[in-house]
Structures are given as C-alpha cells and as structure tokens.
Description:
The complex is a heterotrimer.
Chain A: H1 2-9, H2 11-17, H3 20-37, H4 39-42, H5 85-121, H6 123-138, H7 141-163, H8 165-192, H9 196-203, H10 208-216, H11 221-244, H12 256-264, H13 273-300
Helix pairs in contact in A: 3-5, 3-13, 5-6, 5-8, 5-11, 5-13, 6-8, 7-8, 8-11, 9-10, 11-12, 11-13, 12-13
Chain B: H1 2-30, H2 33-38, H3 44-54, H4 60-72, E1 78-79, E2 84-85, H5 86-121, H6 126-140, H7 143-157, E3 170-173, E4 176-178, H8 183-216, H9 219-226, H10 231-269, H11 274-283, H12 287-315, H13 317-320
Antiparallel strand pairs in B: 1-2, 3-4
Helix pairs in contact in B: 1-12, 5-6, 5-8, 5-10, 5-12, 6-8, 7-8, 7-10, 8-10, 9-10, 10-11, 10-12, 11-12
Chain C: E1 8-19, E2 22-34, E3 39-43, H1 50-57, E4 65-74, E5 77-78, H2 84-90, E6 95-98, H3 102-105, H4 112-121, H5 128-141, H6 147-151, H7 160-172, E7 178-182, H8 190-207, E8 210-215, H9 218-224, E9 227-232, E10 235-241, H10 242-247, H11 252-259, H12 299-303, E11 309-311, E12 314-316, H13 324-329
Parallel strand pairs in C: 3-8, 3-9, 6-7, 7-8
Antiparallel strand pairs in C: 1-2, 1-4, 4-5, 9-10, 10-12, 11-12
Helix pairs in contact in C: 4-5, 5-7, 7-8
Amino acid sequence: MKLFKKITASNLFYNFLRDPMAIGSATVLLFLLVASFGAPLFTSHNPYDQTTIDIMDAELPPIWTGAADADSRFLLGTDPQGRDMLSTMLYGMRVSVLIGAGAVVLQSLIGIIIGLIAGYKGGRLEALLMRLADVQLSFSTYMVAIFISAVFQGIFGMGVYSDYALGLLILVIGFAEWPQYARTVRASVMAEKNKEYVEAARVIGLPQRRIMFRHILPNTMTPVLVISTVQMANAIMSEAALSFIGLGMPPSQPSLGSLIKSGFDYIASGSWWISLFPGIALVVLILSINLLGDWLRDYLNPKLYKD
Amino acid sequence: MFAFIIRRTLQAVFVMLVISVIGFAIKQSVGDPVREITGISVSVAERDALRDKLGLNDSFPVQWLRFVKGALHGDLGNSFKYKKPAVQVILSKAPATLELVITTSLLVVLLSIPIGIYAAIHSKSWWARLAMGGSIIGVSIPVFLTAILLIYVFAVWLQWLPSFGRGELVEIFPGWKSGFFTWNGLAHLLLPTVSLTSIMLPLFIRLIRAEMTETLQTEYVKYARARGLRESRILYVHAFKNTLLPVITVGGVQLGTLIAFTILTETVFQWGGMGSMFIKAVEDADTSLMVAYLVFVGLIFVVVNTVVDVIYGYVNPMIRTGGGK
Amino acid sequence: MQKQEPLLSVRELSVAFKMRGGVLTAVDGVSFDLDRSQRLGLVGESGAGKSVTGFAILNLVSRPGYIAGGHVFFEGRDLATFSEEEMRNIRGNRISMIFQDPMMTLNPVLTIGQQMVETLKAHRHISKHEAEKIALNKLQKVAIPSPEKRLTQYPHEFSGGMRQRIVIAIALLTSPSLIIADEPTTALDVTIQADIMELLLNLCEEEKMALLLITHDLAVVSQVAERIAVMYAGRIAELGSTEAIVNAPQHPYTQGLLKALPQKVERRKRLNQIPGSMPSLQERPPGCAFYDRCELRGEICHRESPRLVEKNAGLVACHMVKDTTGKEEK
C-alpha cells in the first residue's frame, strides 16, 4: 500500500497519466501479456497437445472470409499443421516474450557486471573489455546471434538444438547483446565515480565491492531502465529473426517468428493469414514496448553513452 | 593523425586474428575435414591415416597458424556442398549482396539526413510528427515481415513485381554479374531494397534527429545566435557538423546490422547473395563455407570500421590535431 | 540641457517560463537604464533572473521561456518592433555577449579563425582576408600570443582563460556599443579571474563600450561597475551608484549580501549569511518576496509588494526604508 502510494505520487506516474501514448501502449502491452500468459485459460485448443490436432484441418482460412472450407471452430483459421491460429499465436507470443525477457535478464547481468568493473577499475582491463564490446557491437547483435546459434546448431545437431531451443535462444541473444548494457553502465559509472559520495565512501574505507554495488550501481539504474525497454524489443525481434531463418524455435513449439516462417512457405498459394496474424501480433508487441521506451527516455532523459 | 591511423590499423589486424581464432575453433568443433574430402564410405583406418597426413593431429596453435597462413593466401577450405574452394563460392555470391547493400545505403543516406534534420528543427510540425511516428513503426516491423508483406501485395496480389531471384544480369567485369543495367534486374532489386530500407531508414532518422536536437540545445549554438549568425549557418554549419560526428560512428556500426538483415532479406527473396548462401550452408552443415563467410564478413566490417574511424578522426579536430581528451 | 538619451533602456521587462504546474515568472517588471560607455552590474543569487534578463534584451530566451511583457529600447529604438533579421543585426554587432563557460561556448569543430570570420561576415560585407586582419587585431588586444598561428587552431587547444580571452576578442570584432557579460569569470580558475575582469574593464574604457555585467559576486562588480542593480526573485530590489550601494545599502537584502562578504580576516568567526532561501517563483506570495528572510519586515510587507522608488541616494523596493532626503524637501 505504501509502495502503491509512492508510485502514484511520483512524477513519473504523473507524467505517465498525462501522456495518452504512454497509457495506450501500456494498456496494449498489458493486454497482450495477459492474453499470452493466460493463453491456457482463454483458448479452445492446446497447440502442444498432439492428440487434439488433425492434419486434415490444416490451412483453413479465417471464418469471416466466407470460404467454403472455413471452419467455425477456428476463428483465425489454422496453420499448416492444422492447429488453431489464435491459440497457437497466443502460445507463440508467450514463448517470444519469455525468450525476450530471459535474454534481457541475462544480457543485463553480464553487461552490468562488466560495465561496472570496467568503469570502476579503469586501466588496461577497461580498455580490453570495452574494445571487446565495441568489436562485438560493430558486428551487430543480430549477426552475432545468428552466428552463435548457427554454431550451436552445428555442435548439437538439429534435433538436440530444437529440444533445448528456448534456453539456447536466451543464451544466444543474451550473449549477443550484453555490450549495450556494458557501455551504458560504464558511462554512468565514469560519471558517478568521481562524485563526492563515492569519495566519501572510499575515505571511510568501505570495501571496493560494496562501493561498486551498493553506492555506484543504484545511481546507474536510470539509463539501464531506459535501454532495457529497447533491449526487450530488440531481443524479441532477434528471436523472431532467428526463428524465421530456421535457427530458432521448432514448429512443434512455435514462437511468433517460427509461425511467420511456416506461413511464408504457403504465401504463394494465397494462405496469407498464417503469416499475417502472428506478424501483426509481433509488430504490436514490439511497437508498444518501443513506444513505452521512447516515453521513458524522453521523460527520464538520461545521458546515454554515445561515440 | 598518422599515429592514429597506424594504431587503428594494428587494432584491425588484431581483430582479424581474433576472428580467425573463432573461425578456426568453429571449424574444429563443428566440421569434420576428413568427411569433406572423402565422404562417409571410407574405413576408420583409412581416415586415421588421412588425418595424420592432413596434420589434424597437430596441436591447436600449430593448426591455427596453418589456417591463418592459408587464409592469407585466400584459402579457407573447400565447401563440400559446392565442391569448390569456399572463397570462390563467396566471391561469386558477394556482388549480389553488395549491390543490395549499396543501393540501400545510398537511399538511407540520401533520405535520412534531410528528414532527420527537418524533424529536429521543426519538431512540432505535422510533417515531423508524421516522420517520427512512421519511424517508430518502421523500427518495430521486422525486416522479413516487411519483405513478406511486399511480396504478398506486389508479387502475389497485384503481380507487378517479381518476388524472387535477381533477374537478368550483365557481367560488368569478370566475376561481377550486375543487376543494375537491365530493367528486369532493377525490378528484381526493388522489393529487397525497399525491405532493407524500411528498417534502416527509421533507425537513422531517429538517430540524426536525436543528435541534432541535442546539438541545437548546446551553449555554442546559443552563442552562435548571440553573435547574430544567420540561421542557415547555425543549422547547417554549427549544428550539423557536430551532429555528423556521432552519426558517422554509428553509421559504421550499423553496417553490421545492415549485412545481418541481408541474411533475412535474401532468404525471403531467394536472392543469390552471401546471406542466403550462409543460411543454406548452416542447413547443410557446410562448415568451411560458414567459417569463410564469418571471415569474409568480418573482414568487411573491420575494413569499413577502420575507414570510418579514420574519417571520424579527420572530421573531429580533437583527434586530427592530437589534442583533446 | 536635456539629459542625453540612454543607450539601453529596459522598461517593465517580464520573462515567463511555461512549466508543468503553470507559468513561472522569472523576470517580473524589471526596469533600468544604461548610458553610453557606462558600466552597470546586475547582481543577485542564482535564480534571481539576472541571466534571463541579459538574454531577454537580445530576445534570445529559449523555450519554454518567452518575453511576457515590457520593452527594451536600444539607441532609442524599441527592439520589440524589430523583425528577426533586424534583431540578428543587433546581436553580435551592436550588442555583443560574453557567455559564462568558455569551454562550452566555442564550437569544438570550427577553428578560432572560422568563428571570428563568420561573426564579422554575418554583419559586414568584407572579404575573408579583411575579416582575418580585424580578427588578428582584436586577438592582440586581448593579449593572445602569436595570433596568426592561433587563428588556425581549435578551441580544445586553448586553456579556459585563453578561450575566454578569445570570446572577448570575438565580442570586440564589430566594435559594439554594448557588451553583455554573463558571469564571465565564474567558470575560470580563481587565479585568472582577476586578469580577465581587468582586461574586460580596460577594453570597455578604451573602446568606449557600455557593459552590462551579470554576476553573483558583489565584490567583483563593485570594482568594475559604476552602478549596481541588485535583483531578488525576478525583481530589482535596489539600484544605485556603486558607492551608494556598497557604503550605504538601503534594502535589507543588499545589506545582507554585503555582510556576507569577508571584510577582514577574523579567525573562528563564521561569515554572516542571510537565513533561508529565495522563494519559488511559481508561487509568488502577494507581499514582499524577501519577507520570510527579512529582519526589518513589518505588517505591510506581508500584504503588499513594494515598488521600486527613489529613496535617498538610489532606487529601493522596500516599504521599511525611510526616505530622509524627501522629508526634508517637503
């Protein structure tokens, strides 16, 4: 209750309420999250349950198209395996969000620790770590993610890779994107570490680790929060891209990206709905996160690391 | 400035060495070079003999050195799918990808700078709002989705434009077959280029607008106003020159993103470039070709980023005159 | 003989900022005059509105601020009636400005020469060569060694003090009749502050330029300016000759400021300070803005805001100050 009051009284919340774009995107995002994580409650079909799927139902169009083979059981039609589009999509969105969130947690852990150490210790270690981050970034996070997953698939083989795809994708995307966090945190640490409160902590003889984590780290959280929204959108996008080129979630456990891919194979035959609906869901999901991120950045306006 | 170029070049060489270690490690852990040569119908004893002969039982550093030596001579192993040297395969595919990259970069540079500057100067105007709203939607649509949508609308539905391949090509010089010189080739180029531009352009518009907005709030722009300079000079000399610096750096980094996106775009449009070749190599577990792609793309990035660094150093007086920091 | 028309005449100038909770009036009906080749110090603590006043004279208040009212007459003409192009021709030409932090004011990617030449070319039809000649001359005036070489250098190749000299040289380029200097020494090392101030003073005298010196430092201003205006919470609290302000301050705020200056070394004695802090300009009380911190306050001060009126040797905005000279006249 106290926390709730603290939130509602804050400037952030005040600003949020005055920005229709922020409210709108937060509402949409919340709706998508509830729909996807509550999918087992809302949906008529379980796409993971092989026994309920009939291949004879494959590629049925959405019911409002009025096509002869439209089936009233499947509002948005079915995918090439005969699964209900709507249910599969919601389950798929859950997979996408899970991988995105997992990857962001992983990359922020790696990035924050490396950024904190590099910024605080300085010297050769910093030069090495930051050069590494720069080089990895210049390859672009997508490229790194594609490569690592290609290598993983090569090492483990297609079958094993599919079985552990969810965890592996978190690992891949998490590792591909840590430099963003490392650079942001390092820049903030550089700005903070010469401030007087750090000096004071050093003078009274607090151990380095305590100064780093308890004194400096909390003051670098604003930019971290801001880039986290963008990173979340990026991670979901990366996952979709990997799944689309066949390096992501297998068709048996589809994410939004793999659903779009399976639809793409049928696009020439006119089955537009298999790609379109997951595509719309993906764009709306990413867009709402990006809009929230933009609002947060405009409001908090941290000095993000550049150059 | 000279010392700066030398330092950057050394760094580039170092990065290439690191890439070669990674590439070699991938080759070691994923591929089986014996299979590449013999196929699977050879006895175990014969294979062991071959392993010894190929030096595959040597230590990692020794084998790596041999790999680097080979790479310097343009030998990155043979693609077992194409039965040709991997470098040759890549070089035959590179023009397709480069043409895509060049047209997209040109479009992005030509469009993003005026739009970004306009949006920063007239931030409250409807055009600026439209540009910014469009660009946030743009960055939120994955490139392959745009590509699919374009194919569906222009190839499947309207049937105006071709949806796959490069069309009619003209060999402009040995090894470079170009689609720039036939109407058919350009028609094939259109949809892939629009797809790539649809994601890269918004990124740059947002970047340029953000940098320009920040520069316009600096003290030296205020001071330029107080000196009574003309608005055009303030905007295009004082503000834009300072906006350019971070944009150049990010531009170099974004080339990586652009090439990564060519993998997706080429896959959708069955464009015969390096990107779709790479995905096929992954599917076929053609390790030599994968590693060759890594090294080749790595080389492009390192060269481009080094050139960008040098350009940056030339534009930024802090580096050019060796002072600052 | 009729009194000569002042060079700069600020009348009831108000500047407001659009803020979240409403409108904040940073400058509230400020009026003062400045004669040719005269030096006026505008003193006050941060947030008192002195810098904003300086920028408002050149119509350079940046968003979300705007000029809410009043007039600025310069050389007899109302600047409010000027077009943007006419205004541009005043800025950096007839009125030059010196900014606070020389590390931030010069553009890092243009050479000193480029920035000097462009300033001249914005106001005169002259060749680059002629402009460079003028620039060299002005750099010599501010004692920059080997100016030819310096013209081709970038700001980062100069120290803070040198940069401020260059900014002063830029201000001199067009031989303006007024220089507005906004805390010109605050960002500099203490050791060179006096040098820069002296340079500025000498140049103003030499070139017969008027100076509006904006600062929080009463000690500095009393050495340079002939007249001082003390600002508090967006208004002028007291305005008078430097002697009158320093020797016989009338407004309790001015008195407080003077008492806060170190007069002589006295060990173990704390400097006097004015208790409390300036009120938020967003919720200006109906009465005197200094009421909460004032030692002399009376009942009327709470109800009614004092107007700036002539009392004794200067202008004061305080109900409690008695005008002894006026009584004798009556």
